[in-house]
Amino acid sequence: MKYVFFGGQESEFAQIILDRLIKADKKPAAVIRNAKLPIDENYLKSLSADFFLVASFAKILKKEIISIAKRGTVGVHPSLLPKYRGASPIQSALLNNEKETGTTLFLIDEKVDHGPTIGSGKLKIKDGDNYTSLIENLAELSADLVLNLIPKWLNNEIHPKIQSESKATYTKKFAADDAAVDLKMDSPENIWLKIRALNPEPGVFTILKLKNGKDLRLKLLEADFQKNSLILKKVQPEGKKIMEFKDFLNGYEKNI
After folding, report:
1. Per-residue b/e over 87-106, b at no fewer than 16 CB within 10 Å?
2. Are residues 105 and 153 in the same domain?
3. Looking at residue 253, what is its pLDDT?
4. What is the per-residue pLDDT for 209?
């Protein structure tokens, strides 16, 4: 299994997959992590790789690159394609309170997360899951899929299947404004879902009005949702350290 691994330099998802592959004695012929640097096509051609493997690489690869490897370029996408194509499949699944997600291996083409699928694996989403835990769990699942399905695909035991366009959904990259909540106006469940999905980035926050007329930006880091009520657990006032919500109340309740 001769391949080149493309994975984002700061991506935990990519790092877990790469570490698992190396541990399983499936070390890539080359690793490309920095999406900001130009890609040397001649170097890639010289490797004569069977396929390229792409996981959370912050750059859309040109047609000339994805077609270099003998069998093409395989993408690792943390959703059950064609659902949740695009930049934020894990966050979107959490925001929509999905009970199940997964990972799909697919052949990359010129459209976003569009190519034929080699296979997928499902993962249950628990109430205690958040973006961080799902990144880790989906990366482990992804590594399992690569190790189990890619050899079969290379041996022509698996034939990629075209995705159903009628079932396709798309995600966007979330900005700071998407992570703003109003503790009085927004529903407790929606706030809880945002806390699970949009931390650590872009980072969920609310603005509290203090009695002195000033605004306090408060990061909402952890919470539970029980009996239709939001139970805040960990917060971080602007310029302060992370603290338990009860400690925040003890220190700030006279000013709110």
Report:
1. ebbbbbbbbeebeebbbbbb
2. yes
3. 66
4. 87
Phi and psi torsions of 138, nearest 5°: -70, -30
Q: Which residues of the chain have pLDDT under 70?
A: 253-256
Buried b (16+ CB within 10 A) or exposed e, 138-156: bbebbbebbeebbeebbee
Distance of CA 127 to the CA centre of its chain: 18
Q: Which two tokens stand for residue 124?
A: 């249950």
The DSSP string of 191-255 is HHHHHHHSTTTT--EEEEEPTTS-EEEEEEEEEEEETTEEEEEEEEETTS--EEHHHHHHHHTTT
Owning domain of residue 230: 176-252
Give the C-alpha separation, 18 to 213, whole Å.
51
User: Any idea what DSSP says for residue 161?
Assistant: B
Q: Give the separation between CA 184 and CA 206, rounded to whole angstroms.
A: 10
Residues 6+ apart with CB under 8 A from 81: 104, 106, 113, 117, 120, 163
Residue 26 near residue 5 (C-beta atoms within 8 A): no
- The pTM of this model reads 0.93
Residue 60 to residue 63: CA distance in whole angstroms: 9
Say whether both 7 and 94 belong to one domain. Answer: yes
Residues with Cβ within 8 Å of residue 213, at least 6 apart in sequence = none
